Please model this.
Amino acid sequence: VKNIHSVVIGAQWGDEGKGKIVDTLAAEADVIVRYQGGNNAGHTIVHDHVVHKLHLLPAGVVSGKMSVIGNGVVVNPDGLVKEITEFKGKFPHDLLFISDRAHVVLFYHQALDYVKEIAKGKGKIGTTMKGIGPTYTSKASRLGLRMHEFVDSDTLEKRLREQIPKNIQLLHTQASANQIRQYLRKHHPNFLTESGLVDMNKVVAHYHTLREKLTQYVTDTGVLLQQCIDDGKKIFFEGAQATMLDLDHGTYPYVTSSSPSIGGVYTGTGVVPKISRILGVVKAYTTRVGGGPFVTELHDETGEKLREIGGEYGTTTGRPRRCGWLDAVQLRYARRVSGFSELAITKLDVLDKLGKIKICVGYEHSGQRVSNIPADVRVLEDVKPIYITVDGWRQDTTKIQNFNKLPQKAKDYVQKVEELVGVRISMVSVGKDRAQTIIR
Ligand code: GDP
Ligand code: IMO
Ligand code: MG
Model:
């Protein structure tokens, strides 16, 4: 069995440009696989001014490659049907496969996400409100609904009729009846009776309609992927979210509920591919959306400049992203956790106009040097970044196609990052378009 498969993983807190990198490399792949997360992801792909925004569909659909949604993904059937409809006619539908073991995000998971965040008040995680945490909670508590049940008409109805009342009860332990009614009126008016109660028949009918649209794609994707491996096909695993949002290794509890880092590939697909390349995607600066510690966050005009030039607004939620400098302590940690064999640096062009650029090379806490990401987020909230400052290059890089043609100071920046993180940077992205990518 050949050592040919690749994984693309976010090295920071998400939105590093994973979609663009997977799409750029998709020409080399036969199969693209999502292994975790759900439609909390937002991956943007641009060719020739055509913009594709993907949430659940693997990036392979854009280039007509076999696309697999693995068992580790949580599938929102409403969201997925919407995306498939948007892509109708743009890719062959017999190339999309969804794992029969993937868990299903149902409307009450989204409602639970909402009420849990409200209940947390100031300490909220700032989730995407897509029901991701509650769906993985159902999965871990062995109460989840999986795709094989979803596509079986009788089982679907039986499971919905048993789960909905229990979950509505659960909702009522987290929020007032009024808040719940308001939420449902806004998001699921079609599920309610005149008096605002959930009408089970309406819910069941809704999911039956989605079942009919999704059944054709559902299969045992573990068997399928093993066949691909045995046939010598090249597989690309497309991570969503990122290492610092990993349930185990991220800035817990300000994390997502899946395993974006390398381990997720194995649990999330049911195969053990021989991986030759673990490509970490790192933005030339740092962004984070939602709550949680962010050591190098900028609260000044430079932060705003990065947000405006970089277009740092969420693909999924439209929220402004928090912006700051690159953090080598965080990246070295991510390198260990995900075992990057190489890095792609994106959005280098966003720094084109800056006179001075900082890179965080260490942390200090109570007068002591900290060289690792501490487990306790309260400590991480408290550490002070130690920066080095480098000169900007003040030149447009967006049309450059060759690493050697980059301004010397831009090359120095890339090489500095490489040196600080200890991983080779093999790709430099200087714009949104697939063509604006320098392979080194
Ligand atoms: P993902 O979630 O990691 O796939 O990243 P997103 O798509 O959410 O966010 C990255 C954003 O930056 C998207 O709008 C991309 O079109 C854009 N982008 C990606 N690479 C570059 C780049 O090198 N330069 C610029 N200016 N934009 C980029
Ligand atoms: P892509 O794949 C950036 C963040 C949310 C929140 C935390 C938990 O586009 O990089 P969740 O809804 O998952 O329970 O939210 O994780 N988050 C992301 N941030 N990019 C993403 O995906 C994200 N998916 C979730 O903002 O802080
Ligand atoms: Mg994104």
The chain has 14 helices and 20 strands.
